[in-house]
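Quick one, probably user error.
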């Protein structure tokens, strides 16, 4: 089955085997304009100190919520205005997710990478619309999709003319209210010729386990990130919040800044030992 030649290119950086670890990080959702700018500056400083290419991640609308009462964010128009300011003033590439085809055009005018949410990874119209923008594509692997089967979704983007597709593992459904990560899947996706990212924070979610909210086990993020680094990844995705216990979305899974820095350092160290991290 045909895939895109590696490495791919995201935000001017090469991503794939033999390249530097690409890091995607930020709060799950935009809580305010000041909050987004503050986090982008903080994460730019940390990743700059660590010497890794970085894209700031934040959502303008968390449409996939357990409860209708859950916080969703500022919405398309205001959210993209804030993300544009982050990109222009902080000087970092920006990633956000879209949930419907009507959002793809406006998002592509602002962000560098467009993310397709895990639950929508098989939505052909959405995948093709995102691919046709020419922006980088972050394709989340659905919790219900086998690693070898995500190739079919990725090929939709390739055949729409976009070779720059990053496929992100974020855990698989394991019974009710739980996810597990099969580290073999990372190898299977790489063997299929895909650039592979590991989402270390969404992988510790306990879906709908928090009385109408998604719970999580933050204490396992570092463990899973180290394991994924050993298995072989091209990029790392984490949610970072200055005060995770007060985050309006996905706080139980999010890292604080020091935890984030420690996790990235550990991942880089493992990659260097294995000869996966250049320089």
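Nope, works fine. Designed sequence:
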């Amino acid at each position: 089955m045909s895939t895109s030649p590696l490495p791919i290119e995201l935000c001017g950086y090469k991503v794939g085997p033999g390249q530097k670890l690409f890091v995607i990080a930020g709060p799950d959702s935009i809580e305010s304009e000041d909050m987004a700018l503050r986090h982008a500056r903080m994460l730019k400083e940390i990743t700059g100190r660590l010497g890794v290419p970085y894209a700031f991640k934040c959502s303008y609308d968390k449409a996939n919520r357990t409860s209708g009462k859950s916080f969703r964010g500022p919405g398309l128009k205001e959210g993209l205005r804030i993300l544009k300011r982050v990109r222009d003033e902080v000087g970092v590439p920006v990633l956000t997710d879209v949930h419907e085809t009507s959002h793809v055009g406006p998002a592509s005018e602002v962000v560098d990478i467009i993310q397709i949410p895990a639950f929508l990874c098989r939505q052909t119209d959405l995948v093709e619309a995102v691919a046709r923008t020419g922006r980088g594509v972050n394709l989340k692997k659905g919790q219900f999709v086998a690693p070898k089967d995500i190739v079919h979704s990725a090929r939709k983007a390739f055949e729409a003319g976009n070779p720059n597709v990053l496929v992100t593992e974020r855990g698989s459904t394991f019974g009710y209210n739980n996810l597990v990560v099969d580290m073999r899947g990372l190898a299977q996706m790489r063997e299929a010729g895909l650039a592979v990212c590991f989402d270390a924070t969404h992988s510790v979610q306990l879906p709908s386990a928090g009385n109408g909210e998604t719970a999580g086990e933050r204490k396992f993020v570092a463990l899973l990130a180290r394991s994924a680094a050993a298995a072989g990844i091209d990029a790392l995705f984490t949610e970072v919040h200055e005060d995770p216990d007060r985050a309006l979305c996905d706080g139980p899974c999010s890292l604080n800044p020091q935890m984030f820095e420690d996790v990235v350092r550990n991942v880089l160290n493992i990659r260097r030992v294995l000869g996966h991290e250049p320089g």
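The chain is about 35% helix and 20% strand.
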